[in-house]
Amino acid sequence: MRKLRERFMPTLSESRTLLGLALPVIIVQVGMMAMGVVDSLMVGRVSPAALAAVALGNLYFWGLSAFGIGVLMALDPVVAQAVGARDEPAVTRAVQRGMLLAVGLSVPSSLLFLTAEPILALLGQPADVVPVAGGYAVRVMPAVFPFYAFLVLRQSLQAMKRMRPIVVAIILANLLNVGLNWVLVFGKLGFPAMGAFGSAWATSASRWLMALGLLALAWPQLGPYLTRIRGDVVRPRPLARMLALGSPIGIQFQLEFGAFGVIALLMGRLGTAAVAAHQVAINLASLTFMVPLGISAAAAVLVGHGVGRGDAPEARSAARAALTWGAGFMALMAVLFLALPGELVGLYTPDREVLALGSALVSLAGLFQVFDGIQVVSAGILRGTGETRPPMLINVLGFWLVGIPVSLALAFGAGLGPRGLWWGLVAGLAAVAGLLLLRVRVRLGERLERVVIDEIGEERQAVGRGSEGRG
């Protein structure tokens, strides 16, 4: 038993190192999620239709942003491994290229927001919800660029273990979001009551504060990387390598979000109450998901540092600690969801139909909590090693070849409706978690190499051979 514990359980030192970085990351993740929770809580007091409209509007925002978010996650291995190797020029190039990518990704993503209303109507969403959802999406369009810019700054600071400015920026943005929602949704302080549209304007303003506030607060750390402009950051081949590294993550995020998005759209075919219940349940599940997502981000950084330093045992110990804490937390959340589903849904809405259906969905969310924690932490570990393609392929298999077919079969073939759609999510997440965990085991047993973006010559740098200005 002792040998088994020593092999699979993290030491106190490993846990302290992981949680020292993960806890601030979790606060940031929860803070970002809290904006959506506040929007739903306040708009849910207006009407079920308004709540459903915000759900679809946010679905559209995240659906269009998911690929860009994933592309910018390429900064995790690039910056973390450069920091581990103490390669300052590589850090500078990575941060500046990240900002270039943020600008390039923002333009097409923003323009696509103008198509929200006709596309939602084409997808058969409730007629009373579509115009409001489309208007919501258009009003959050100004938030796309600051959101991407914030991600670049956040990923870079996380890799440097500089978390305080991110935490402060998130807290300030949430305070602004709460205040503006109260004023604009309900019509306070002389403003007209704008309902869901007011919530959209509050979200846009808060995301601008999030980005500009972080830039101001972290200027002592980020200023040297942003002001010393390097001419080589626009070289096509390194930019192409960044895109090649980040695009599979973007596709993975798009596939995962797309699977959840398809479920949400199918809910729309089952009525407004189904959409509202789904929004409440997915909101709760997403809130708990922020904790393993934060642990995943910390794992990517710590594994990346180990690879950059040429210390494979350090990378493996960080991975072990992350999996233990991520799965452990989600097991506790599973117990909570299964024990108190009605009480949790009651925080969002007094509507009896939504309350009954939402309680059933929250119970199902309890079943996939552990799977969700394992899959996201495993993906972070693999990202830290610089591996991005296998997780993308695993997402295709788990979500689209297992999860979605099961959802369709149970919801419409077996007549289980919304519950059947969520049983498909359980099956898909279980498949993804098992396959990613197997890939982590294989990957950490292989030779780990630092990701090469700017090559000196054409040789690839392996862990243990040293570093000469690469990143």
Structure explained in plain terms:
There is one protein chain. The chain has one domain. The two termini are 42 Å apart. Mean pLDDT is 87; it is low at 1-6 and 457-471. 80% of the residues lie in helices and 0% in strands. The protein is globular. It has 471 residues and is mainly α. The chain has helices at 2-8, 12-43, 48-72, 75-84, 88-111, 116-122, 130-139, 144-159, 164-186, 196-217, 219-227, 236-268, 272-309, 312-339, 341-346, 352-385, 389-413, 417-444. It is built from 18 helices and no strands.
What are the defining features of this structure?
single chain; 471 residues; disordered N terminus; disordered C terminus
